[in-house]
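anyone seen this seq b4? input:
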Amino acid sequence: MMRRIHATIAVGAVALYAGGVQAADVFTANVTVVERDENDTYQLNPYGTSNAEVLFEGLNEAVLRTIVPDSRVNDFQGNEQIIASINFRGVEMVVRFPDYAGARLVFEVDSAGIGEEFNEEGNTREQNIDLLIDYLKTNKDGAASRLSGELARSSPSDPVAGNPASMQSRMADTDFKQAFTQKVSQVWGCGSSASAEQKVMLAKAGFGCLTDVADLNFRMPVVELAQLGGPASDAAAVGLYDDYFSRINRMRGENKLTLGLDYAQVTGSAGNGGVEHESSVISLPLSYTVVFDNDPRKRVIVRMPISLIDTEGASTYQVALGLAYNHPVTKAWSLTPSVGYSAAGSEDLASASALASFSLASSYTLNLGGWALNIGNMIGNYSTQKITLGDYESDPGISNTVITNGILLSGPSSLLANDLVVEYYVNDTRYTGDDLFTDNAQEFGVNFGKLNTTGEVVTSFIKGSVSYTMASGDNGNEADMLRLSLIFKF
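predicted toks r here
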């Protein structure tokens, strides 16, 4: 059963906005009153809110009286014909009481193909408003699903898809970056794959293997290797090599826990002078990496990011669970398949959604002297699923194939020698499939990493990132995101 808001609460909430719609409101209404003879009409003061139920309950007679213009206070009876033109997070809808002194309610969302009447015998207008709210919550006749699909196409602040703060966009971003920009300090080298002759050569030269970030040589322990000579000395060099890299690989093969804090500020605006909304996102990117004993480059990553999104005062909660496997194809090339499931809910925005995903990412590293160039590619499918959260049920049927390509430049190696890493990256993401508010995005970012090493192996690191994303879609729709993050891996 739906949550009811007492009339006094609804009156107070709407009265805050009486006399004008605020720029920050995600729901707004303009109400027209038609007198009995239908020759006299007048507008009530517009009102807005950031809560969907408060929006509809604003059509109760007691609330409407609070937004009647002073010049019409004596004219308003409360049983006239009422026409409310509503902007529902960017989607236009109409709620009407078309009969004088009647309770029949008509609800229409033309862009989503929704048209419904509520006229149970003996009901008051307030009771029919309650039926409308339940109709949307319980997804009767698939109305909530159709509305959710339209919101992903038309709203700059939809929590499901269509903008950089949405669940779909954030899942795709995580899948790509765990295989691409998270390569900082993921050290690997030749290890046991080197031949005996190569081991002797490397040991006598005093060098070990390369990192996957830059052409940085690992120094061997301080030993007078140059004095070694002859077969016995070669055997000693091989033994020294094996012992050194055995210890390195043991440290390299330790499992890792990643904790962090991520903040993003997103602004979206509909083209042709449409609505504009701002959202702030706070996330905790939690993950755990399990490495394989036989090859530390092989990793299984379990992640569970938790996010809170505030859209003009409306709260959305999101939690995701993902599983990825990083497989080294060659020393420079790795593939990362991922699967994930995410759920988000917002009572304020009248939204409940779930998303399932699978993707495949590729990462290839080129060593360029003291620099390294990483080339990343990903393709994945992200589709909504049926879900019930609290009173809300929805299955918007949104499915998109997401393609991301990016380059990352790291270095120079002198910074690495001081246990510092700087990375510069550019990513381009394209969405195909169902129509979205924005269908492409370009991200420009910089990462700063501080490494902690033991025996030439990175045992932990802390990394800060700043990035700017600009997204666009049809009809001049735009969204921008400024993002700051801090990640600690140990």
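Residues 1-21, 183-195, 198-232, 413-417 have pLDDT under 50 and may be disordered. The radius of gyration is 29 Å. kinda curious what u guys think
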